[in-house]
Amino acid sequence: MRTLAEVIQTRDTYWVMADDTVLQVINYMCERNVGAVAVKDKDEVAGIFTERDLMHRVVREGLNPSEVLVRDVMSSDIISIGLDDEIQKAKAMMHQHGVRHLLVLGKGGQFKGLVSMRDMVEADIADSLELIHRLNDIYYEDAYKSRWRVSSNRVIVEPYVPDHSS
């Protein structure tokens, strides 16, 4: 089973400061094409800001993104998971807590990145494709095997014809 370290190994770590305005954070997220960022206050992760936070806590409330600080509208109930935990655990935690992002922590609680529900879907698809390729290889290996037999002094090779009678 794959771990979160395998999922986020090639990914950059995105974070903003708690005193940044929502507009600054939105621009940062758009430039990097991400839907969520960690929010740091000094050197500690204080929360997560997501597109959903933007919609529910800024737009819906009629707040001005260039005036509101991200610390005032971020999700501060941080749900974290370990870097070496398995993907299945991350999916279960997301479902249990009703969230789409988890904070990934390494040894000593060091921030390593965010993992999203989309990452989980992509990991499932990758695993499924791998299984499909293995099954196809087994099927076609059997389906196209030639049969051979020895008749007096020669070898006769006959094409394999699958038996579909069963």
Q: Can you describe this structure?
A:
- This protein folds into two domains: 113 residues, CBS-domain (Roll); 37 residues.
- 38% of the residues lie in helices and 24% in strands.
- The protein contains five helices and eight strands, in the order H-E-H-E-E-H-E-H-E-E-H-E-E.
- The chain is elongated and about 90 Å long.
- The model has no long low-confidence stretch (mean pLDDT 87).
A few lines on this structure:
With 166 residues, the chain is of the alpha/beta class.
Record the SSE blueprint.
Layout: H1 4-8, E1 15-17, H2 22-32, E2 36-41, E3 44-50, H3 51-59, E4 80-82, H4 87-97, E5 101-105, E6 111-116, H5 117-143, E7 147-151, E8 154-158
Parallel strand pairs: 1-2, 4-5
Antiparallel strand pairs: 2-3, 5-6, 7-8
**How would you state the average pLDDT, rounded?**
87
Give the helix tally. 5
Helix fraction by DSSP (H/I, runs of at least 4): 25-40%
The total strand number stands at 8
CATH architecture of the largest domain: Roll
Largest sheet: 3 strands, mixed
Order of helices and strands: HEHEEHEHEEHEE
Residue windows where pLDDT falls under 50 for at least 5 positions:
none
Q: What is the CATH first-level class name of the largest domain? A: Alpha Beta
Q: What gap, in angstroms, lies between the N and C termini?
A: 35 Å
Q: Please, how many domains?
A: 2
Q: Indicate the proportion of strand residues.
A: 15-25%
CATH superfamily of the largest domain: CBS-domain
CATH fold naming of the largest domain: CBS-domain
Strand order of the largest sheet: 1-2-3
Q: C-alpha Rg, in Å? A: 26 Å
Structural class: alpha/beta
User: What is the 3D form?
Assistant: elongated
